[in-house]
Design a protein that fits this description.
Helices cover about 30% and strands about 20% of the residues. By secondary structure, the protein is an alpha/beta fold. The strands form four sheets. Strands 10, 11, 12, 13, 14, 15, 16, 17, 18, 19 and 20 form an eleven-stranded mixed sheet that branches. Strands 5-4-3-2-1-9-8-7-6 form a nine-stranded parallel sheet, with helices on one face. A hairpin with a 3-residue loop joins strand 21 and strand 22. The two termini are about 35 Å apart. Bound molecules: alpha-D-galactopyranose. Alpha-D-galactopyranose binds next to loops.
Length: about 675
């Protein structure tokens, strides 16, 4: 998708307001620099008040009004909010939980993704919308549904069971293959007929791990199918109009790497909890993930809160300057659009205390002033619309691995992927080193360093890819409980981490998951001591050298951190979990060896730096997340696009302020 301007705007729900308000809305939008709104997201009941009876006149008037005020429309399909009549006519569209409870009408997302009646209605409303607005000059983009797999991610109704069986038939073609993959020889679970197969419902004891994994794969695919059905309608009727749906951070139920390939542009809803001192690390990590889903393509921040949300126990305001800073953080990490939920704060309904661009207090309010100031300054950044973020490090992220890793009955049920990804990510964030996320089968050749935390499930293709990456000169850091199972979740024979033995130059005999509160220490070969926690692998070296050994317990003296030269590259292995100081030591060593350096070294804590660049220019984003004014080195001279001022090697940033310095491109980062 080509961006001609930064998008700025939000969800617009005019149906909650009398028509008199609409004129005020559009003129305020104009004054706030709004150029795009997401319209009609929950309007199904108003657009189709009875089955097949449509009322578009109100929407025609809204579209015209927006267009005449220079606001384009990201037109939504309202399919996340099936109307009451549909539920009344077809109660079987309602989703059913694993224990058989039906979830009723009265909020939203109350549909089963496998229900043919629902899917028919959804495609019909998409088609009617597309036919009606296909030539409307305000139509800029299609917003399909809203946050797939939010609130409910799977359905256990009879339609879902039937769809699961069909999905399994396609995947395995024969019951013999399914029985093999699911390992049904264990506890006599063999199937002799497809109709005997059920989803992983409540069982007396451990469920079949592969059955559970396939169910999650299937459920993830099902949301994609719903999206694709609507997208097909739009591609038929409006082939030139981009299609998106709004994603939600590290959202476990859907494989976003897979799903994103179906979208013309990736978009994200982001609600960091700004009461947490490290909220910016969480949002940075999310933005880097979202950018990586369609590498080298800009994305859209489709929703964020202007200030507080209303769904946490205690909802933090965004303090003065924080909303702007967070928005610029998204731009720094590849966003070409800053949008909000929602335009005007609701007067009623479940979200009336959720902040909005135009709050209950009206325009004489801090929120409004900050929102309209941002909308009016974003166009100053238009030079960088076609720039990219070029990271030299990738952290591997694989949804299937995430699902499999966190199923029950593991050596430790406390092993969770995302906190571990975050521990590595934080090390790089704090050094202001740019990071992509990549699936393990991706082309990794442009990265100097790849970090793979807990890559428990690894396909043959991914294992080859990683081995080749190192053999061809890459540096890899793999952490414990990696390479353990194949795609079917069967143990890889030949000792733990078998697919990586040669590359790592070691074998792993057994795991030692620690009891809560138990720690150990490691002693490094350069004389340092660090605490390690949670887990220890009992490792035997072949060609690898040890960089740190355990100090206590029966495996004392055994390697905790190793390094091996493999082909032209180097593979590091971390057989335990380190606290931040130990991780800092390890990452420093690896970065030095991989020759990756920060763009601007030795910055004060709380200063975040990112770079977007094109062939001839680069834009250095400097964000001050602290409550104090700071002098920050800028490396070289340029112009701060936000203030319009020339910068000579140093910039003064007041509390929560930011600069975007346009500079001539130089060779950076990698020595
Ligand atoms: C999500 C939804 C919106 C709204 C916001 C509230 O992002 O897409 O409709 O409910 O959450 O934070």
């Amino acid at each position: 998708m080509k961006f001609e301007q930064f998008f700025f705007g939000g969800d617009y729900n005019p149906e909650q307001w009398p028509e008199e308000t609409w004129l005020e809305d559009v003129s305020l939008m104009q004054s706030a620099g709004v150029n795009l709104v997401s319209l009609g997201i929950f309007s199904w009941a108003k657009l189709e008040p009875q089955s097949g009876i449509f009322d578009f006149e109100w929407l025609d008037r809204v579209m015209e009004l927006l267009h005449s005020h220079g606001v384009s429309v990201n037109l939504a399909t309202p399919t996340a909010a099936p109307p009451a009549w549909m539920v009344h006519l077809h109660p079987q569209i309602l989703p059913v939980t694993a224990d058989g409870t039906t979830l009723w009408h009265g909020s939203r997302r109350h549909y089963c993704p496998h229900n043919p009646d629902y899917r028919g209605y959804a495609q019909r409303i998409a088609r009617v919308l597309a036919e009606r607005y296909k030539n409307h000059p305000a139509l800029a983009m299609w917003h399909v549904d809203n946050e797939y797999a939010c609130h409910i991610s799977e359905c256990f109704c009879e339609h879902s069971v039937a769809a699961f069986r069909e999905w399994l038939k396609l995947r395995y073609t024969s019951l013999d293959q399914l029985n093999f993959a699911w390992g049904t020889a264990f506890w006599g679970q063999a199937y002799g007929d497809w109709n005997e197969i059920q989803p992983p419902r409540r069982t007396p004891a451990q469920k079949n791990p592969t059955q559970q994994l396939d169910w999650t794969r299937f459920s993830s695919d099902s949301w994609q199918v719903c999206f694709e059905e609507q997208k097909r309608v739009f591609k038929e009727i409006t082939p030139a109009v981009p299609v998106t749906t709004n994603f939600m951070s590290f959202h476990r139920p859907i494989d976003y790497f897979k799903f994103a390939q179906l979208e013309d542009v990736v978009s994200l809803d982001s609600y960091p909890d700004t009461s947490q001192p490290d909220w910016m690390v969480h949002s940075a990590m999310t933005y880097d993930l979202i950018r990586s889903l369609k590498k080298d393509n800009p994305w859209i921040l489709m929703e964020q809160a202007a200030s507080l949300v209303n769904w946490r126990q205690r909802n933090a305001v965004k303090r003065p300057g924080v909303m702007r800073l967070g928005s610029l953080q998204a731009v720094a990490r590849g966003a070409n659009g800053i949008m909000f939920f929602q335009w005007r704060q609701s007067k009623f309904g479940g979200e009336m205390f959720h902040s909005a661009m135009l709050p209950h207090a009206g325009t004489d309010s801090r929120t409004w002033r900050e929102v309209s100031a941002l909308g009016n300054e974003l166009p100053r950044l238009s030079n960088l619309l076609s720039s990219k973020v070029e990271a030299k490090i990738a952290i591997l992220m694989d949804w299937e691995n995430w699902w499999a890793l966190e199923l029950d009955s593991k050596p430790s049920s406390d092993l969770k992927l995302i906190p571990n990804l975050q521990a590595f990510y934080r090390q790089l964030y704090e050094r202001n080193i740019m990071v992509d996320f990549a699936p393990p089968e991706a082309d990794l050749s442009s990265y100097k360093l790849v970090i793979a935390p807990n890559l428990y499930l690894v396909t043959g293709i991914a294992a080859n890819n990683l081995n080749n990456y190192v053999a061809n000169g890459g540096t890899l850091l793999l952490s414990y409980f990696s390479g353990i199972v194949d795609n079917n979740q069967h143990i890889n024979s030949g000792g733990y981490a078998a697919p990586f033995h040669e590359m790592l130059g070691l074998t792993i005999e057994e795991f030692v998951p620690y009891q809560a509160g138990f720690n150990n220490t490691i002693r490094t070969t350069d004389g340092k001591q660090f605490k390690n926690t949670f887990w220890a692998d009992v490792v035997h070296l072949n060609t690898a050298e040890t960089l740190a050994n355990y100090e206590q317990d029966y495996y004392a003296g055994g390697p905790a951190v190793t390094r091996n030269t493999f082909g032209k590259g180097t593979a590091y292995y971390l057989g335990t979990e380190l606290l931040p100081d130990g991780l800092e030591w390890l990452i420093d060593r690896i970065l030095e060896q991989a020759q990756v350096r920060p763009d601007l070294p030795n910055l004060s804590a709380g200063i975040e730096v990112m770079l977007r660049s094109d062939k001839s220019k680069e834009w250095l984003f400097i964000l001050n997340h602290t409550a104090t004014s700071l002098e920050v080195p800028t490396g070289k001279n340029g112009t701060d696009l936000l203030s319009g001022q020339e910068v000579n090697g140093m910039i003064h940033l007041s509390a929560y302020a930011a600069a975007v310095i346009e500079q001539e491109r130089i060779y950076r980062g990698v020595v």
